[in-house]
Design goal:
93 residues; mainly alpha
Length: 93
């Protein structure tokens, strides 16, 4: 049997939003530092395959970081909206 879930409260929603927002800011800072590092170190090669693979890897890294930031931002906004909804809804029972 499953255990009963604790009640949904605005405090729990805002705690989750704070955690998600903090993680989003950390990933944003990491992505920004990664972009700065990749920009500061260009690829020095004459081989077209090396240039294409390096470009692919850089694009995947930056795209993955950006995707993580967007997903965590959406989670944060959704949890804040859920907290507002729970706070304004009449109590059940």
């Amino acid at each position: 049997m499953s255990e009963p879930q604790p009640p949904l409260t605005p405090g729990r929603c805002l705690t989750g939003a704070a955690i998600s927002g903090a993680l989003g800011l950390a990933v944003y800072a990491l992505t920004r530092a990664m972009v700065a590092g990749l920009t500061a170190h260009p690829i020095h090669s004459q081989n077209p395959l090396v240039l294409r693979l390096a470009s692919l890897v850089r694009t995947v890294l930056v795209g993955g970081g950006t995707l993580a930031v967007v997903v965590l931002g959406v989670f944060t906004v959704g949890l804040v909206a859920l907290a507002v909804q729970v706070a304004w809804s009449p109590p059940e029972g």
